[in-house]
Amino acid sequence: MSIVKTLLPDEQIINRTKKHLIIFFFPVVLTLLSIYIAGYMSNNPILEKLQWAPWVVTLIFWAYAYLEYLTSEFVVTNKRVLMREGFFVRHSNETRLAAISQVTVNQSLIGQLFNYGTVLINAFGASDSFAMIARPNVFQQCVNEAIDKATTDKTK
Questions:
Q1: Comparing C-alpha atoms, which of 65, 69, 97 is closest to residue 81?
Q2: Which among 24, 39, 118, 138 could disulfide-bond with 106, CB atoms 3.0 to 4.6 Å apart, if both were Cys?
Q3: What is the pTM of this model?
Q4: Rounded distance, CA 35 to CA 38, Å?
Q5: Which residues are bridge partners to 74 per DSSP?
Q6: Beta strands of the chain (E only): which ranges?
Q7: Contact criterion met (CB below 8 Å) for 20 and 69
Q8: What is the DSSP string of 90-109?
Q9: Each residue's pLDDT tens digit, 46-89
Q10: With helix as H, strand as E and coil as C, how does 11-30 read?
Q11: Helix (H) or strand (E) holding 143
């Protein structure tokens, strides 16, 4: 179910992102490894009949990464931050802007190079993290701007 279908009547999307394409790195490496292993197995008469096995494992990893990418959705609206990911194991969080005390972005050196990272939402004691989000700094900035706008609109 898409996050857009759960929006409130006067709620507007400010920013929307997904998981970063880096989640396909391991399946790509596994594909290259399977090419090498299948070539080795085809030259060995004993292993020749099992050269389909690495491809099955590779296909499973590709399917898992693809489903994870398809089902990930991270949205900042003028009222809430909505984050959902996972197909087999669902992880979701809907936090009102007024309840958020801090938004933290953690990025490794590679995450900084490829622009992905982990976003942590702290809501006055409770925290939730979402890994491998594309453009996490833009997401953090949009959350902070939405919080700022929501608090200034209340004071007026």
A1: 97
A2: 118
A3: 0.81
A4: 5
A5: 17, 83
A6: 13-17, 73-77, 80-85, 91-96, 102-106, 116-123, 126-134
A7: no
A8: -EEEEEEGGG--EEEEE--H
A9: 788 888 888 999 999 999 999 999 999 999 998 889 888 888 88
A10: CCEEEEECECHHHHHHHHHH
A11: helix 136-155
